[in-house]
Design brief:
Helices cover 38% and strands 17% of the residues. It has 391 residues and is α/β, with parallel strands linked by helices. The protein has 2 domains: 17-52 and 352-388, Urease, subunit C, domain 1 (Roll), CATH 2.30.40; 55-342, Metal-dependent hydrolases (TIM Barrel, Alpha-Beta Barrel), CATH 3.20.20. Strands 4-5-6-7-8-9-10-11 form an 8-stranded parallel sheet. Strand 9 (247-250), helix 9 (256-265) and strand 10 (268-271) form a beta-alpha-beta unit. The structure holds N-(iminomethyl)-L-glutamic acid (NIG) and fe (iii) ion. The site of fe (iii) ion (FE) has 5 residues, from loops. The site of fe (iii) ion has 5 residues, from loops.
């Protein structure tokens, strides 16, 4: 499944294929018979397995302390995400647990989750900060992400989730000011983030605060993305599109104007069915609207302690099909080609094409649709930069 689309063939399927890899990059892709004369120092037969690009998980919050297992019980007893947050739980509770954890402990538990995603076929993953809130704590988390990026065979895109929650007791205006004047420029100067994110929502930050952050991000030379329209419609998607965001994520409450704006700016719609499922939401994102406007759709795990404690990336593809009505093809494109686009990495990853990184996942399945069918399928092999590397 090259993910290089052709008419009637969204997956760019080549049967009986061979992939040539040199120095960590893909150099040839074609039918085995066409590549028969090629000299190779090593031939690795895959015995009729299906090969996809390595999965791209374009929305995670996997660096955090503690868990939120207790909230899982509260939700079963009927409490909503907003009610739990208003009572001091939610993001604030993970912020406390994260502050209480040493860097060593944070690294250890985050690495365990990262390994789980990698075992699931992920070769590129976006990781957000956002459980630090104040500048020093956010920079500490971005440094943990950097340490992971330098020590693990996986491509990590670090995102500064600059406006996630207001610290308890903080003055709104002063907090936003400090994020914009101090945290954002510092993270940009230290090269600790490649994009900037915010949570634009009734229980989080307003469109006006988000817009100020986005202007500052542009001034610092960083692209933006946004948690938009998850629990209500704040016109976040249109705001994100106006700032030429790489992606707008969640989108359960997206309206037509938002979809049109996203199509015009090329902003990718990142669907997060794990969060929808965990919060037992009932309103599904308007997938038909996205299709009609030609908005590119990506799918991600949203691995985070509160709303998507998700560790098997393929399950997000299954949920995108079962809960949101994506076709298996759309779900697979959503965790490869379109997810690469959501990260601005479309020149580097997301398809099996000459010139791209040799990042692959090998699946022991009989047909592509199985990637949308199983609940928690793991690949047989994972190849990162041409190297076999299942953790
Ligand atoms: O993607 N919506 C905000 N951020 C996360 C959840 C964060 C949390 O509850 O810890 C999300 O769903
Ligand atoms: Fe999120």
């Amino acid at each position: 499944m090259t993910m290089v689309p052709a008419p009637g063939d969204p997956l760019g399927l080549i049967r009986n294929a061979a992939i040539g890899i040199q120095d960590g990059r893909i150099v040839r892709v074609g039918r085995r018979t066409e590549l028969a004369g090629t000299r190779a120092t090593e031939v690795v037969p895959l015995g009729g397995a299906f090969v996809t690009p390595g999965l791209v998980d374009c929305h995670t919050h996997l660096v955090f302390g503690g868990t939120r297992a207790a909230e899982h019980a509260q939700r079963r007893a009927g409490a909503s995400y907003e009610e739990i947050a208003a009572a001091g739980g939610g993001i604030a509770s993970t912020v406390r647990a994260t502050a209480a954890a040493s860097v060593t402990a944070l690294l250890a538990q985050s690495r365990t989750r990262l390994h789980a995603l990698m075992r699931g076929g992920v070769t590129t993953v976006e990781i957000k900060s956002g459980y630090g809130l104040d500048p020093a704590s956010e920079l500490r988390l971005l440094n943990v992400i950097r340490t992971l990026a330098r020590s693990e065979p996986v491509r990590i895109e670090p995102t500064l989730l600059a406006l996630h929650a207001l610290p308890p007791g903080a003055d709104r205006e002063a907090f936003v000011e400090r994020v914009i004047e101090d945290l954002l420029p510092t993270a940009a100067r230290l090269g600790l983030a490649t994009s900037v994110d915010a949570f634009c929502e009734g229980i989080a930050f307003t469109p006006e605060e988000t817009a100020r952050l986005f202007e500052a991000a542009a001034a610092a030379g960083l692209p933006v993305r946004l948690h938009a329209e998850q629990l209500s419609n704040s016109n976040g998607a249109a705001l994100a599109a106006h700032h030429r965001a790489l992606s707008a994520d969640h989108l359960e409450h997206l309206d037509e104007a938002g979809a049109r704006a996203m199509a015009e700016s090329g902003t990718v719609a990142v669907l997060l069915p794990g969060a929808f499922y965990t919060l037992r939401e009932t309103r599904v994102p308007p997938v038909d609207l996205l299709r009609r406007h030609g908005v590119r759709i990506a799918v991600a795990s949203d691995c985070n302690p509160g709303t998507s404690p998700s560790l098997v990336p393929q399950l997000a593809m299954n949920m995108a099909c079962n809960l949101f009505g994506l076709s298996p093809e759309e779900a697979i494109v959503g965790m490869t080609r379109n997810a690469a686009l959501a990260l601005g990495l479309e020149q580097e990853v997301g398809t099996v094409e000459p010139g791209k990184a040799a990042d692959l996942a090998v699946w022991r399945i009989a047909e592509p649709a199985e990637l949308g069918y199983w609940l928690g399928l793991l690949p047989e092999r994972r190849i990162f930069g041409g190297q076999d590397s299942l953790p």
